[in-house]
Amino acid sequence: MIRVVIAEDEAPARTKLERWLAEQADVELVGSTEDGLSAAQRIGQLQPDLIFLDVQMPILSGLEVAAQLEPGHAPLIVFVTAFDEYAVKAFEFNAIDYLLKPYDRQRFTRCLQRVRERLQVHEGGAAAVAVGRLQTGVCERLLVPDADRLQLVDVASIEWLEADDNYVHVHTATRTYLLRRTLQDLLSQLGDQRFVRVHKSAAVNLASIKSLAPLFKGDYEIQLQRGGSLRLSRRYREAVFARLGQ
Prior knowledge:
Layout: E1 2-7, H1 11-22, E2 27-33, H2 36-46, E3 50-54, H3 62-68, E4 76-81, H4 85-93, E5 97-100, H5 105-120, H6 126-136, E6 141-146, E7 149-154, E8 158-164, E9 167-172, E10 176-179, H7 183-190, E11 195-199, E12 202-205, E13 209-214, E14 220-224, E15 229-232, H8 234-244
Helix pairs in contact: 2-3, 3-6
């Protein structure tokens, strides 16, 4: 069975998709929602094989939702969009599945057959995640788990990031969140304007650096604006100094 989530803020379009999917013997609709934050929540909770993701939704757009996913674990994504032909070229160039509104049953059937073929070869949503990040640019709001829900954190409020195998501890001034991502992938989403790597397992927000003090063998101690410290490995020293203009 293909486990499917629908994220569509227009009730008639959502109902149409629900009805057509219900007619498919190999499809199980496990969730349906109308905004981007709830869509991300459903993906994390339900682990679907496929999500029909409307590009224009409240709170987070479909592209922003896709951009927040970890490429190696993202479900296959079908973008549902009313964008014009020029914008759709981004999907076509990257071989992303999409439905252009208003679409009919024949177009839906072709799309679903293409999805079946992709799932047979165990293809996931990495390409759609890449398109989401390309189209949305630098991430300003990061989705983080908070108990049994997700919330949006202002990226500017993040002081530093700490890798822990395939997880990242996201440290703010008041809270620490545990996110299932690799540090490398998270930094690629956040962009290099704000964060810099200081160690193989840590990165810091440049705005959080108060001062640097030499240690030994080329390492430095970073004092943070709100207290606490991090070690700057000599391997990353030149890059950090360059970003600070030193």
